[in-house]
Inverse folding.
């Protein structure tokens, strides 16, 4: 349930023709399913089925070990500590691991999720591995912000770009997942083309929370600066919910901007969404665009550094005034 048929078919064809790259970069915004497709690619590379059309079969010993998250030839690295010394040790361990011969599958496959969060020193440490590919190995780097990677690393990767899905693609995925047809258009617009978000919104509680956050944000758009600063103060005290709230803001502004530009027809939105958008119709598209870029940068900085959340968000909101 991830979509991205074009990218998936390209990857399948490269395996079928035995023309896989030794290193890939899966790039695109969060919640698009990049990591999930990377894991599916790993299953495909090592699936033992004799019929290629059935791969990944999920029945062979390799596929079963992947499902149990204990495949000896698969490694997933997720940077949780964000400590430079730990990151460098992870990269060194990766190099040693890739130097070993595959045990169960045909390839040693490693995925590094959110590689842009690794320090420059850790990124540089990976260069040796990229410059000296060993045997049957495939390395996949995943990044929401590829522009923050070292250029010498990007030049050694085959980049696969992931973009938000169309509304119809999201609707098709939701219907395939057994969603109520009456909810598909509603969820599709709220998901902003992100299949992982669309799947999450199939949960009635998550859908309700999402719409409550949007309603709260839409009510703020035409308020004065004093009101904004008070709301931001309240928001930043809810530290656990801050990332989700910012994602809601970004998705709502993005959809509002697309409506303004005529890319999304207002008539295609449901009644509640049209009512919410009506509150923000007076905001010029140029200001929405500036706010979108500024908030996106702030959202990244908050996940990457120790920047003051309140000051960073206040600085972004000034784009409206």
């Amino acid at each position: 349930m991830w979509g991205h048929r074009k990218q998936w078919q390209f990857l399948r064809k490269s395996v079928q023709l035995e023309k896989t790259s030794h290193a890939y970069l899966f790039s695109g915004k969060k919640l698009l399913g990049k990591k999930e497709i990377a894991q599916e690619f790993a299953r495909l590379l090592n699936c033992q089925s004799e019929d290629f059309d059935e791969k990944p079969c999920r029945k062979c010993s390799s596929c079963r070990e992947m499902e149990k998250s204990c495949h000896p030839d698969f490694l997933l690295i997720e940077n949780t500590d964000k400590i430079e010394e730990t990151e460098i040790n992870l990269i060194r361990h990766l190099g040693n691991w890739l130097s070993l011969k595959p045990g169960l599958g045909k390839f040693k496959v490693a995925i590094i999720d959110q590689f842009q969060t690794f320090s420059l020193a850790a990124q540089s440490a990976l260069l040796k591995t990229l410059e000296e590919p060993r045997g049957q190995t495939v390395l996949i780097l995943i990044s929401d912000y590829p522009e923050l990677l070292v250029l010498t690393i990007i030049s050694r990767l085959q980049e696969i770009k992931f973009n938000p899905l169309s509304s119809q693609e999201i609707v098709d995925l939701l219907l395939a997942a057994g969603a109520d047809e009456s909810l598909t258009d509603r969820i599709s617009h709220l998901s902003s083309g992100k299949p992982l978000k669309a799947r999450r919104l199939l949960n009635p509680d998550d859908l309700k929370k999402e719409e409550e956050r949007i309603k709260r944000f839409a009510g703020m758009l035409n308020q004065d600066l004093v009101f904004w600063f008070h709301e931001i103060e309240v928001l930043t005290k809810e530290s656990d919910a801050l990332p989700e709230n910012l994602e809601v803001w970004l998705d709502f502004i993005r959809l509002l901007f697309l409506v303004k530009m005529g890319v999304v027809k207002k008539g295609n939105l449901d009644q509640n969404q049209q009512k919410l958008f009506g509150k923000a119709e007076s905001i010029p598209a140029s200001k929405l665009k500036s706010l979108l870029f500024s908030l996106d940068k702030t959202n990244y900085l908050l996940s990457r550094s120790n920047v003051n959340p309140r000051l960073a968000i206040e600085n972004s909101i000034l784009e409206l005034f």
In short: The longest strand covers residues 137-143.
